[in-house]
Amino acid sequence: MPTGTTPQGGVSASVHVPATSANLGPGFDALGLALAYGDELVASVAAGSPAGDRVDISGAGEGCLPTDGSHLAVRTIRDAWDAWGVDHAGVALSLHATNRTPHGRGQGSSAAVIVAALTAAAALLPEGLRPDRDDVFELAARIEGHPDNVAPAVYGGLTISWGGEDGGSAPAPRGEAAEGRAFRTAVLRPHEELVALVAIPDVKLATALARGLLPAQLPHAAAAANSGRSALLIHALTAAPELLGVATEDRLHESFRAPAMPASAALIGALRAQGFAATVSGAGPTVLVLARAGEEAELAKAELLRLSQAEGATRIGAEGEAVNWRVLEPGLDTAGATVIVHRTVG
Ligand SMILES: Nc1ncnc2c1ncn2[C@@H]1O[C@H](COP(=O)(O)OP(=O)(O)OP(=O)(O)O)[C@@H](O)[C@H]1O
Ligand SMILES: N[C@@H](CCO)C(=O)O
After folding, report:
1. Ligand 2 pocket test: which of 20, 21, 24, 29 has the largest number of ligand atoms within 8 Å of its C-beta?
2. Are the C-beta atoms of residues 200 and 286 closer than 8 Å to each other?
3. CB within 8 A of 130, min separation 6: which ones?
4. Which atom in ligand 1 lies closest to the alpha carbon of residue 207?
5. What is the C-alpha to C-alpha distance for residues 149 and 232, in angstroms, rounded to an integer?
6. Cis amide linkage into residue 152, ω under 30° from 0
7. 3-class DSSP state for residue 342?
8. What is the pLDDT of residues 31-77, one digit of tens each?
9. 28 φ/ψ sector (left φ>0, alpha ψ -120 to 50, else beta)
């Protein structure tokens, strides 16, 4: 970035970022799927200072999240400009956030806001100097700490991400410079018949808490079974959806986290007992069901609605509170994060 580059006034960047579901069963910290609904962030700058930063929020987080410079999107934009060598001390940021992705439910809300903020931070720079999608992916994954929600939020579709051992550079494809990237991803198109259903409870589970429940070590047999299933899962998601049930079996995380989301675990157990490919979405507690379009998806939806409304185990959360569920069939997104830069008038 040339010395003295500043964010542009007189323009606004409108960003859309999809909600995402990570893990998909055995693909812990690696697999992600973009869902066709998500968040909007409109960003602009004017002459001023960071003290003048303002965020206007509607939807998730409205009335709870900060509306000043301590908002995650503002911090992320300013951190990105620092990382890219942009001089931003003389501007105030104005953000309008429309949040549809629920927070702390396992649909990638934190990845979405980070990706939206970085996409806006790049778009507000002069044309020709804007970091590209791969730069946004890299920085977002570093901030989030793992790439599995960030990749589908940036690129759309079905993503397989990887990093380096012990936080080093991610191994690069043959013939490509390693470039010191910490994370990389391969983007696949999901099978055209793939349908995703989500049941979203009205209780939250912080990802940090859910990660704290994982064991440091696992038996080799469990790791071997899991690697076989995650390989099979790619085949199921792209070519053979009839294998989704067996391919979504996980040995790395779901059982260890079940005590923190008993209602989700009970719902998944009841659905899997009927042969449906039900898993925890991300770190939970949303339940994700993958199915083939047509009769199987219709049956899965009917069962998901019936079980999530039933009295009993599925109505009790981790703290003993009642759980209410919202069931959605969001469709799949293949575009990822998109941005339009408008010239502002007046
Ligand atoms: N749009 C947003 N604006 C500001 N902060 C947000 C936004 N979305 C998420 N956050 C912050 O991230 C937290 C949720 O992140 P967390 O990683 O726990 O869950 P998640 O990203 O929704 O789920 P998962 O990582 O399992 O998919 C929120 O409680 C909030 O602090
Ligand atoms: N792979 C992550 C996804 C949630 O961010 C986890 O399960 O902790």
Report:
1. 29
2. yes
3. 122, 123
4. 18
5. 20
6. no
7. strand
8. 999 999 999 999 999 999 999 999 999 999 999 999 999 999 999 99
9. beta
Per-residue pLDDT of 206-218, as tens digits, reads 999 999 999 999 9
| 27 C-alpha to ligand 2 centroid (Å) | 10
Q: How many angstroms separate the CA atoms of 76 and 118, rounded?
A: 7
Q: Name the nearest CA neighbour of 58 among 99, 94, 17.
A: 99
**Hey, what are 345's tokens?**
């008038």
Sorted by where each starts, the structural domains of the chain and their CATH numbers stand as: 11-188+333-343 (3.30.230.10), 194-328 (3.30.70.890)
CB distance 336 to ligand 1 below 6 Å: no
- Residue 259 token pair: 């005590």
- Residues with beta carbon inside 6 Å of ligand 2? 22-23, 28-29, 146, 148-149, 207, 210-211, 253, 282-283
ipTM rounded to 2 decimals: 0.98
Bridging pattern class, strands 158-163 and 27-47: antiparallel
DSSP string, 120-184: HHHHTSPTTS---HHHHHHHHHHHHSSSTTHHHHHH-SEEEEEE-GGG-PPPPPTTS--TT-SEE
Calpha distance 200→208 (Å, rounded): 19
Q: Which residues neighbour 192 within 8 Å (Cβ) at sequence distance 6 or greater? A: none
Strand, coil or helix: 231:
helix
